[in-house]
Amino acid sequence: MIRHLPTRVLIVFLCLFLLLIIGLLTPRDEIAGSIQETKIAMANRSKQKTVSEFNKERKEYSYVSFDNLYSNTDLYYGTKIYQVGHIKNFDSAHKYLLIALDGNDKSRTIKLKYNLSSFARGDVDLQENDPVKFYGRVMSTDSYVNEKGRDVSRPVVSADFIQTKNNNRSDNNGIV
C-alpha cells in the first residue's frame, strides 16, 4: 500500500490540475448570463397579456396612416398608435421587427422595437410575411442606406402589445 501511495497522490494531483485548467479556461459569465437571461425571459412572459386583457387599453390607441407617420414623425412623438402590417425581417438579438405597412412595398416599412412582454400571451413564434397588428408609441426615425445606396429614414415605434396570426381566434377584438 505504501508503494502505491505516490502513484495515487500523483493521479489526484493531475486530476486537480486538470480541473483547475478547465475552470480557468471556461467562461464564468456564460453560465451566470444564461441563468440571468432565463430569469428575465420568465419575468417577461409572466407580464404578457391576452387579447381580452388588453382590450380595455387598446381604446387609447389611434390609427395613424404610414404617410402621416412618415412625414410627421416628430409631431407624433410619444403618441399611442396602432397599425397592421406584415413582418419583413426580425432581429431577436437587438429586439426589433421590420414591418411593411402597405403590402410588400419595402418603402413603407417601419422599425418596431419590442421585448418579450410586448407579445400576446403564448404568441412569440415569429415568421417572415406573417400578418401582425401592433400597438405602441412613436419614438423617432431610423436612418439607413437601402440596397440602391440611398439614405432612407423610417419611423421607429416602441411596441406595447403585438398580435400575430397565431392568436386565439375566439376573441374578435382586433384580430389580424
Task: Fill in the keyword field for this structure.
28% helix; elongated; five-stranded mixed β-barrel; 2 domains; 4 helices; OB fold (Dihydrolipoamide Acetyltransferase, E2P); 176 residues; alpha/beta; disordered C terminus
CATH topology of the largest domain: OB fold (Dihydrolipoamide Acetyltransferase, E2P)
Radius of gyration: 25 Å
How would you state the average pLDDT, rounded? 77
Q: What overall geometry do the principal axes of the alpha carbons give?
A: elongated
Tally of DSSP β-strands: 6
Biggest β-sheet: strands ordered side by side in the sheet: 2-3-4-6-5
Structural features, described:
With 176 residues, the chain is an alpha/beta fold. The chain has helices at residues 5-25, 28-46, 51-54, 66-71, and strands at 62-63, 80-91, 96-100, 109-113, 131-145, 151-164. The chain folds into 2 domains: 5-46, no CATH class; 51-164, OB fold (Dihydrolipoamide Acetyltransferase, E2P) (Beta Barrel), CATH 2.40.50.140. The chain is built from 4 helices and 6 strands, in the order αααβαβββββ. A 5-stranded mixed beta barrel has the order 2-3-4-6-5. The N and C termini lie far apart (78 Å). The model is unreliable at 167-176 (pLDDT under 50).
Summarize the structure.
This protein is an alpha/beta fold and 176 residues long. The protein has 2 domains: 5-46, no CATH class; 51-164, Beta Barrel (OB fold (Dihydrolipoamide Acetyltransferase, E2P)).
Strand and helix layout:
Blueprint: H1 5-25, H2 28-46, H3 51-54, E1 62-63, H4 66-71, E2 80-91, E3 96-100, E4 109-113, E5 131-145, E6 151-164
Parallel strand pairs: 1-2, 4-6
Antiparallel strand pairs: 2-3, 2-5, 3-4, 5-6
